[in-house]
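Continuing from the previous page of notes. For each protein in this section, the sequence appears first, followed by its structure tokens. Read the first protein now.
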Amino acid sequence: MAQMGGSPRFSVYVGNIPYQTSENDLGNFFSQAGHVTNVRLVIDRETGLGNIPYQTSENDLGNFFSQAGHVTNVRLVIDRETGRPKGFGFCEFADEQSAQNAISQFNGSDFNGRSLRVNMANR
């Protein structure tokens, strides 16, 4: 659960989606279960990040990765039992070249005492 503007948001991960599916298609499908506020398909402009220091914020990561290009979204994965970060997340860029820059510049680099793993996120 994430908070935006004081209202809680609940997100679900959906896998095994056919490649031709649009965000609109997915939103319409899930609206059968309730009110859908946002749908985002992971595309090739998103990098998977691993070995992130646990005290790191999404803002910290966004600022760091903006050196590679225009960052449009950062998401840390949070353990639902403890509410603490799990040490990995995702950084989305405005274009594929920026994502590739992030991989080549930062994979294996030191970030707050830990060696980051940065690669292209899977669809």
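Done with the first. The second protein uses the same format. Note its length before scrolling.
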Amino acid sequence: MDFSIFIQFLELLIDALFKPNMKLNQEHKPKYIYLLAYAASVSESFRRSQRHSLKQDEVKLTIQAVEKAIGSVGKTHAELVADLLWKFQIFCRVSWSDTLGGGRSNRTFLF
């Protein structure tokens, strides 16, 4: 595939998902998100013109990140800052309570 065609395809996906007032068929939205996440996170390596490995480990996390970014579209600066401060407060509370408990926590938060 020609690299310039690939870039144009990604631009179409990004516009469809993030451009304000863009009409998007809701049945297509998860597919567009998957394609964008796949393109952004999958890598392959070659040896002697043969594909050696294909790394797809980050696709699910990238899908979640794209969905959260889409949820932020249209929010005001104040709303985004309020969301960030709220998440930071939760993180600080969890970190502080884990420190007081004396042990390390296995909790993971994806914001």
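What the second structure shows: The first strand starts at residue 43 and ends at 47. The mean pLDDT is 78. We return to this in next week's lecture.
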